[in-house]
Amino acid sequence: MSLTLRRPTSTAPRTAGARRGKVERQWPLALALLAPAMVVVFGVVLYPMGRTLVLSLVDATSALQTEFTFSGLSNYTALLSNSEFWATVWRTAVFTVFSTAVELVVGLLLAQFLNQRIRGQWFFRSLVVLAWALPTIVSANMWRWILHPEYGALNGLLMHLGLLDSYKDWIGGPTQALFVVALVDAWKTTPLVAILLLASMQTIGDDVYEAAAMDGAGAVRRFLSITIPMLKPAIAVVLVLRTIEAFKVFDIIYIMTRGGPDSGTTTIAFYTYLQAFSNQEFSLGSAAAYLTVLFIFVLSLVYLRMLRTDSGGTA
Amino acid sequence: MHSISRRRLLSLPLVLGAAAVLPGCAVSGPSRGSGGSSGPVTLNALFMKQASYSEDDIRGMLAAFRKAHPDITVQPTFVAYEALHDKIVISAPAGTYDVVLIDCIWPAELASKNMLLDVTDRYQRTWLDDILPGTLGAITYKDRRYGMPWIPGGKIFFYNTRMLKDAGVDETAMSTWDGVLDAARTLKAKKIVEHPMVWSWAHAEAMVCDYAQLLGAFGGRFLDDAGKAAFHQGGGLQALEWMKRTLDEGLSAPSSTKLLEDDVKKVVVQGDAAIALNWDYMYSESNDPKQSKIVGELKPAVSPKGPGGQGPAVDGSMGLSVTATSKHPDAAWQLVAFLCGKENQLQYVERSLPVWDSAYEDPKLTSGAQAPLVAADKAQYGSLIERPQVVQYNAVSQEIQAGLQSCLVGGTPAAQALADAAAKVNRVIGG
Amino acid sequence: MRPSRFYRPAMYLCGALLAVVVLGPFALLLLASVSPQAGLLGKPPDLWPDSPTLDRYAAIFTQAAGGVAGDFRVALVNSLVVAGCSVAVSLVTGVLGAYAFARLRFPGRRLVLFVFMLTYMMPPLALVVPMYMTGAALGLLDTRTSLVVVYCSFTTPFVLWLLSGYFRALPAELEEAARIDGCGRVGALVRVVLPVARPGLISAGLLAFLMAWDEFFYSLIFTSSPASKTVPVALAEFTGRYSLDFGLMAAGGLLAAVPPVLIALIFQKHITRGLAAGAVK
């Protein structure tokens, strides 16, 4: 997709023409090859997407409603003029930026570590896969239990070790809770980020590093001035991918906090859930969903623009 | 699930025997449906996992129903409580289910949106004389009945008798919330337990239940006669102030604002709190030595009274309804009437108390391990408080939850938190 | 480059830190799964049980279907079937589509790509109601088929994205040689490109498998009987309205992690190699 990025290299400056020479105009064949994927994806999703768009423009407040009144953009304006909705957008943005930042920074360091040629590396790489393979539902329940203020394992462990003399509430207030939930998301997802970045790191030739080392660049310097720039396209992919996922965060919150405490973790997806399912405000929920897509889209564009990479001519 | 099924130990032989006993029982409902459409019918019924009647119980009941109605097959579905409402709503247009289990906070919403069948005229005249009036809220909207109550009950007030005795507090103090407050102070001062009370005040429906019970005791109302929010003044405000005070004084566990009913149970059975509100299942679990450190110490009691002398318990009844989209409403109604019928309920009294007043004379309820709980339950039925019976209840509840939490967690003054919530509730109800 | 003498100790320190962060919670999960319920609730909890119990595992493996634990076993099979089928479908369709995006130019290419991306951004919450109604009309509700159909709608764009980058990175000369030898486009794809692209296919399949294995919300709404419930839904049902035996959740959670971990470990080498050439080059 448009996230497909090419890595610019000094030896072979990219030219669009060189690549395009290899591709041909063959739309009948293209259509034939794309048809199965389009059937599988669009066949399932386009009708619901269209219906949701229609719902967002009418006044649906019951699952059984059959007659609708067109209400224009009033659902959108109702949301956009509602301070509670903006609060959920703000929380979602904080969650997204914080969790992706943690995942990116830790993921980079982790990838760098996993890229070292040390004995037992297979063990460390397996560890990373382990955290990633635990289903979100389990991971969320596990952290709810570990951090529980009354019978949490973390409290118990710290008390056993004598580091704590009374139980602490690790979820804390609304702000802390949001960051805790973001960290739980990061625990589960950083491995994916690390693996994506590691893959890209492995394409950087040793010769580049050796040349830099001969010029007297230290390890940190090499990481900052070679690894990071070379990884820019991969970082863009990760950022866009994680932003899409983080903006839709639902499962972790559904299990861990249900939007509390003090509304601190009511993100846009959870808000949409409450509107559409608990309250049967289908039109409002649909409008919120399309606004979510809009926010994701804008954020993705900002990332891609910031990292200024060639996005395969498709973004 | 061993930690869930209440009164399990007592009921096992009974469950097995039920299928054999039941064929003789007649359905207490009108067994000849009006349509008279003969031929085999398959009904889909939506139940909940892991509370009151177990899956095995329900399968036993359905087997008995099958014997009495050979041409009606019932396909049960069991989902978590959290998924129940969403399933009912989403499946409504498709008409997936014929019979659904509903919570007492949903009839206004579901009935007003034409999702449930009005069965008022299908009730037998004598039923209303015997069904516990407090449980009818679970299926009533604007004086019409949309099903039958199936699982009765309000939140029970529990206290640890051993701890009270150790602190030298007389149990009569437990009859008023003032007395409870003083008792908690004594328990704390004498270091019997660090936080004498624990509550389910998490950002969830569970908190509204506790709040409703206190609001009722302090003489408050959720809505006034005109249907406008009224909980931000009088008893409603005093209730929240009372809640906040117990947190500030350290009488309530500070973690209460993160806890659900199950968390409260765990704290209580570990002996880390002396006083709590919870659903009646906590009683049998407190006497289960596998998980409890307070076997024999917990006492179920009538909810304490507020300054005005009222002490209602929040209604937590559930009912069975026929969906409006059911293609076999007559057969579905027969199933509802059978399951909620007195004869069927008497077979399973160890799991869930019956909704029939006369059933409480049954010796299985008046004596035996559950007797104290049954007594408390029975005494409470006459005094239950409903959460607001409005179409937009879920949205209203979300605003109340947000308001309560902003006071208890965020530190907003109670009056302001509730005034804000009341304004939002009025907006939700108004349009 | 001669590493300094601090290099190795520093690296193993990092490794130890990683092990603690990942294995710590796993160890707690494992202990919880064998601790008696009472021990778990203590203050502080009894994290090293004197009499560990394997009851919960036994319940999962031996309890008859119908109980929560027994149903979980059925759910494991359902999840394997659903995730496996989703992977198969999305790989086949994804390979063909990715090849078209990588090698062919055609009008509307950007539009099609854009719509694929848009579908991926759509929150599932917004799609589930109309999907449910369609499923009901087709009689597909509460079937594993319905889950496969829905899961493919989000695993396929993902596979497509991953593989189109991968194919583009493969030298075009390979195919050209094959086509001179008389293979058509499709022939070249099957005989030349796919064998070379195996690592990419494996990593794409693995990612798709994990997405399907992890999915919760659609499954929660679409399934209702044990015959079609998947692992995340079965696990969520361990939390009853009023009750949660965390130990059972822990045991189920650990078992739920086994299939993806096994698969990921078997294909571990290919994951990094496949992605290296694919997504990010």
Rg estimate of chain C, integer Å: 23 Å
Low-pLDDT runs of chain B: 1-36
Q: How many distinct helices of chain C?
A: 14
Instruction: Summarize the amount of helix of chain C as a percent range.
Output: over 70%
Q: Roughly how many Å apart are the termini of chain B?
A: 43 Å
Which structural class matches the secondary elements of chain B? Answer: alpha/beta
Give structural notes.
The complex is a heterotrimer of chains A (315), B (431) and C (281). Chain A has 315 residues and is mainly α. Chain A has 13 helices and one strand. In chain A, helix 8 packs across helix 10 (219-247). Chain A is globular and about 75 Å long. Chain B has 17 helices and 13 strands. In chain B, strand 1, helix 2 and strand 2 (72-79) form a beta-alpha-beta unit. In chain B, helix 1 runs parallel beside helix 2. Chain B is globular and about 70 Å long. Mean pLDDT of chain B is 88; it is low at 1-36. Chain C has 14 helices and one strand; from the N terminus they run H-H-H-H-E-H-H-H-H-H-H-H-H-H-H. The longest helix of chain C has 36 residues, at 68-103. With 281 residues, chain C is an all-alpha fold. The mean pLDDT of chain C is 83. Chains in contact: A-B, A-C, B-C. Chains A and C meet through strand 1, helix 2, helix 5, helix 6 and helix 7 of A and helix 1, helix 4, strand 1, helix 5 and helix 6 of C.
What's this entry about, in short?
Chain A has 315 residues and is mainly alpha-helical.
Give the topology, please.
The complex is a heterotrimer of chains A (315), B (431) and C (281).
Chain A: H1 16-20, E1 24-25, H2 27-55, H3 74-80, H4 83-114, H5 121-133, H6 136-146, H7 153-160, H8 174-201, H9 206-214, H10 219-247, H11 251-256, H12 268-278, H13 282-307
Helix pairs in contact in A: 3-13, 4-8, 4-10, 5-8, 8-10, 10-13, 12-13
Chain B: H1 8-21, E1 41-48, H2 55-68, E2 72-79, H3 81-91, E3 99-103, H4 107-112, H5 127-130, E4 140-141, E5 144-145, E6 148-151, E7 156-160, H6 161-167, H7 177-189, E8 197-198, H8 205-217, H9 235-248, H10 261-269, E9 275-278, H11 281-286, E10 298-301, E11 313-314, E12 318-322, H12 329-340, H13 342-347, H14 363-366, H15 371-381, E13 384-385, H16 393-408, H17 414-430
Parallel strand pairs in B: 1-2, 1-3, 8-9, 11-13
Antiparallel strand pairs in B: 3-12, 4-5, 6-12, 7-9, 7-10
Chain C: H1 7-34, H2 37-41, H3 55-62, H4 68-103, E1 104-105, H5 109-121, H6 124-137, H7 144-169, H8 172-180, H9 185-196, H10 198-214, H11 217-222, H12 231-236, H13 246-266, H14 268-277
